[in-house]
């Protein structure tokens, strides 16, 4: 019984202790909660004050913006009023200007545009002249020196182009011997040489006609040998033809070798040397093609030396540039493509092949050597007396040249002079001013370059002359 009482007493004591501890813990929690709540209320109060301040600031800003909007609106109204006033003043001024000037707005615009156009043309002409003068000062002297030096260093004789050769006879009785009994001699000669013999009333002469210059030369030499020998019959003719053909082959080889020695071009394939030799018997517009090729080689070499380019390559390309003309009557195609194919066949340098293809502008020149060969070819062909043109084509070119010049407004007369190498244009002084003359010259040059084909260059001279005439009585 005592043990139970003690147990109850201990239980009561523990219960009181637990209750005290619970109360203390509860008290601590309440204190902490109250503290936390107090801090939160304080923070909320501060946040509320900040928000209130922000609202007040926003209200002030909105009020300021409203005032600015009101001010801007007033200013816009003032500006609109001023613009209306300006438009009214402008309209009144325009009316006064129209009254004073006698021009409407559109007429005034047209007048101003015309005036500006004239000023722009004047300024453009000045700029063109200044640019041309500056370019000439920098380049013309050197270009002239190079080309002039090249031309002075090279001089070549020129043969006359023909498709016939004349063989002189000691007497007219020789004509009958050349014809032979029932024409057997002349038939044999024509068959073996492929050339036509014309025996007519021309005294003491036989005409050898044929397109192939080498065959024509063989026939000419055969005739001369037969006349000297006096024995004219088919067997002797055949023997003489074979002999002359061997002579011609040797001459061709020798001429080709002489051309390479003269130009200093070495290492050519033997077949290329033969092609060069054949050019001796080929002419173009009256100019011997072999001499022309030698001249082009020298010209290209001189210009290459002046410009610091490979001289040997330039000379080689110049010598071979017309090689296709040796066989262009035997193979279809232009002499440019034929020549390039021949050069490729005999393993020539690719730059030489390119120069051959580009020397007539069939393709764009991509190397300096190709440009030099093109220029040297033009210089050689354009030299006075170098080539003989068909008179009809020559006259047509002169007429076209004058027609182009006369087509421009303000031109009074034009004259093609110096065999078409210069065109002199007389302009009307009342229509054309001095400062617009360079533009006319430039426009004529452009038209000529676009519409005409010509060797060398054409000088365009524009002349404006004002004369005052009076009489003393």
Describe the structure.
- By secondary structure, the chain is mostly helical.
- Helices cover 67% and strands 8% of the residues.
- It contains 14 helices and eight strands.
- The protein has helices spanning 2-101, 105-153, 173-179, 184-193, 213-229, 234-263, 270-278, 289-307, 311-320, 335-345, 350-358, 368-382, 391-406, 437-451; strands at residues 164-168, 196-198, 205-209, 283-284, 287-288, 411-417, 422-427, 459-464.
- It has a three-stranded antiparallel sheet with strand order 1-3-2, covered by helices on one side. Strands 6-7-8 form a three-stranded mixed sheet, covered by helices on one side.
- Strand 7, helix 14 (437-451) and strand 8 form a beta-alpha-beta unit.
- Helix 2 (105-153) crosses helix 8 and helix 8 (289-307) packs across helix 12.
- The longest helix is centred in the first third of the chain and has 100 residues, at 2-101.
- The protein starts with a helix and ends in a 9-residue tail after the last strand.
- Mean pLDDT is 82; it is low at 155-161.
Q: Got a strand count?
A: 8
Instruction: Give, in order, the helices and strands.
Output: HHEHHEEHHHEEHHHHHHEEHE
Global structural class: mainly alpha
What is the residue-averaged pLDDT? 82
Main sheet, how many strands, which sense, barrel?
3 strands, antiparallel
Estimate the helix proportion, in percent: 55-70%
User: Given the structure, what is the number of helices?
Assistant: 14
Tell me what portion of residues adopts beta-strand conformation: 5-15%
Tell me the Rg in angstroms: 52 Å
Describe the strand arrangement of the main beta sheet, using strand numbers.
Answer: 1-3-2
* CA(first)-CA(last) distance: 183 Å
């Amino acid at each position: 019984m005592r043990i139970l009482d003690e147990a109850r007493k201990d239980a009561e004591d523990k219960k009181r202790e637990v209750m005290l501890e619970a109360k203390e813990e509860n008290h601590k929690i309440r204190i902490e909660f109250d503290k936390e709540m107090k801090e939160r209320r304080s923070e909320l109060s501060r946040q509320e004050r900040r928000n209130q301040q922000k609202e007040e600031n926003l209200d002030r800003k909105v009020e300021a913006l409203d005032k600015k909007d009101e001010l801007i609106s007033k200013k816009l109204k003032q500006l609109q009023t001023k613009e209306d006033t300006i438009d009214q003043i402008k309209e009144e001024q325009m009316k006064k200007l129209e009254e004073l000037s006698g021009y409407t707005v559109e007429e005034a615009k047209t007048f101003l545009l015309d005036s500006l156009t004239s000023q722009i043309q004047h300024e453009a002409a000045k700029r063109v002249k200044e640019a041309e003068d500056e370019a000439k000062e920098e380049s013309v002297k050197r270009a002239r020196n190079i080309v002039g030096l090249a031309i002075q260093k090279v001089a070549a004789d020129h043969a006359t182009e023909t498709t016939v050769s004349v063989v002189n006879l000691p007497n007219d009785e020789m004509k009958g011997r050349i014809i032979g009994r029932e024409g057997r001699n002349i038939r044999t000669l024509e068959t073996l040489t492929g050339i036509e013999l014309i025996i007519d009333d021309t005294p003491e002469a036989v005409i050898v006609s044929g397109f192939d210059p080498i065959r024509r030369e063989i026939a000419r030499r055969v005739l001369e040998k037969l006349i000297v020998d006096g024995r004219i019959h088919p067997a002797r003719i055949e023997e003489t033809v074979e002999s002359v053909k061997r002579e011609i082959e040797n001459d061709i080889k020798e001429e080709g070798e002489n051309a390479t020695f003269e130009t200093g071009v070495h290492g050519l394939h033997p077949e290329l040397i033969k092609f060069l030799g054949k050019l001796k018997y080929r002419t173009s517009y009256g100019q011997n093609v072999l001499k022309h090729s030698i001249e082009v080689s020298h010209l290209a070499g001189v210009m290459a030396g002046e410009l610091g380019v490979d001289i040997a390559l330039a000379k080689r390309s110049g010598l071979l540039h017309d090689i296709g003309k040796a066989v262009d009557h035997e193979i279809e195609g232009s002499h440019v493509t034929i020549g390039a194919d021949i050069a490729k066949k005999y393993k020539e340098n690719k730059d030489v092949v390119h120069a051959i293809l580009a020397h007539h502008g069939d393709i764009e020149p991509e190397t300096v050597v190709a440009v030099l060969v093109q220029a040297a070819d033009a210089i050689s062909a354009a030299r006075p007396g170098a080539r003989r043109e068909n008179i009809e084509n020559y006259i047509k070119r002169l007429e076209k040249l004058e027609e182009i010049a006369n087509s421009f407004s303000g031109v009074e007369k034009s004259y093609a002079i110096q065999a078409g190498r210069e065109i002199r244009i007389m302009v009307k002084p009342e229509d054309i001013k001095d400062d617009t003359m360079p533009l006319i010259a430039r426009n004529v040059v452009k038209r000529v370059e676009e519409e005409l084909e010509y060797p060398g260059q054409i000088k365009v001279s524009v002349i404006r002359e004002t004369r005052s005439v009076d009489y003393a009585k």
